[in-house]
Amino acid sequence: MIIHICFGTRDLAKAGTFYDAIAEALGAARSHATDTAIYWSKPGTGIGFAATLPFNGEPATWGNGVMATLGAENQAMVDRVHAAALAHGGTDEGAPGPRANGMYCAYWRDPDGNKMNAVALG
């Protein structure tokens, strides 16, 4: 069971702005913040995502082949999340639309290069 997903960042303020937009498009918000990390969730669900400065002090890097998938309520929410990502410094990795597996998805990378996608669950 996954409790939450955490991405490292080189710029916590920039990550905060980026993920605030993603969270808002998903109906979530910041749930906690410290000097080294920010956490987002939907009310009553616990922590779903975090961005953090690496504990070891080394620069944050992205993992090739690593991706976090966000569940969206419907196709319109996938569209809004993808648009929010691109509007706040993300790069497109696949526009919203149906995929060969029958799912409706969109893909992007955050400003640190971490790959994410959103999938319509409803």
From TrEMBL:
Domain Glyoxalase/fosfomycin resistance/dioxygenase: start-end pairs: 2-115
Family matches, as Pfam families: Glyoxalase
Classification via InterPro entries: Glyas_Bleomycin-R_OHBP_Dase (IPR029068), Glyas_Fos-R_dOase_dom (IPR004360)
Organism (species): Novosphingobium anseongense
Protein's recorded name: VOC family protein
Lineage start: Bacteria, Pseudomonadati, Pseudomonadota, Alphaproteobacteria, Sphingomonadales
